[in-house]
Amino acid sequence: MLILGIESATELVGCAIGGHEGVLAAVEVTRGRRHAETLTPAIEFCCQRADIALDEISVVAVDIGPGLFTGLRVGIATGKALAHALRIPMIGIPSLDLLAFPIRHANRLIATVVDARRGEVFYAFYRQVPGGVQRLSLPVIGSPDDVVADIYALGNDILCVGDGAIRYRDALKEVHGLEIADASLAHPSPRPLVQLAHAKALREEWVNPWELEPLYLRKPDAEINWPTRAGVR
User: Fold this and answer.
1) Residues 6+ apart with CB under 8 A from 45
2) Which of 26, 116, 119, 121 could form a disulfide with 16 if both were Cys (CB 3.0 to 4.6 A apart)?
3) Do 105 and 77 touch, CB atoms closer than 8 A?
4) Quick count: other Cβ atoms within 10 Å of Cβ 134?
5) 60-94: per-residue pLDDT in tens?
């Protein structure tokens, strides 16, 4: 069973192909925010590197967010189009889960923090369990001060990961015993997306393309600004 993973929730856009042998090929680009222009060529290149034809893919996995609205829309729409064309199911994995999984061996609680723009972040907390991590809270949106308050409420040493943790490093560093993960782990990656999706696929935990929904947590900027503009008139 081969999984095509599509990642586009943050500034990183890319894809990976893998299965029971692990990840066979991956492409990741973090320069600029040209998700629509980058994703399709990345998928084609990834297939070439893995020597895999698209019709050999069994499941399409996508990052469902939370994250940047435009990036999520591009990635999910591309994944649905491929799944429809190939007549195969889909699996959605939250971006915050994808950030936590690569640091599952950390000996402290994990806070995944994604930059949501406008002074806010998407975040959730995790603990280590055999073979992976377990989310302790639903993904939420709040200010860096909200993250700090929730960390104090937990009362544990915390490892923070994500581009939001790096952007608001100064605010988070006020917490005693807090560590921020390396910048190389700041974005959700298609590699853990394929790994987590493959485990779900073996359990047949997939959905039809039309059933998959993004996790936005906040309305798009254009939708938020429209009532304000209307009020000006």
Assistant:
1) 27
2) 26
3) no
4) 13
5) 999 999 999 999 999 999 999 999 999 999 999 99
* Topology annotation, domain 3-95+188-229: Nucleotidyltransferase; domain 5 (3.30.420)
* Model pLDDT, residue 219: 75
Has this prediction a pTM greater than 0.85?
Answer: yes
> What are the DSSP E strand ranges found in the chain?
3-7, 13-19, 22-29, 59-65, 90-94, 109-117, 120-129, 132-135, 140-142, 158-161, 178-180
pLDDT per residue over 14-46, tens digit each? 999 999 999 999 999 987 668 888 999 999 999
CATH of 96-185, one of 3.40.50.150, 3.40.50.720, 3.40.50.970, 3.30.420.40: 3.30.420.40
The letter for the amino acid at 122 is: F
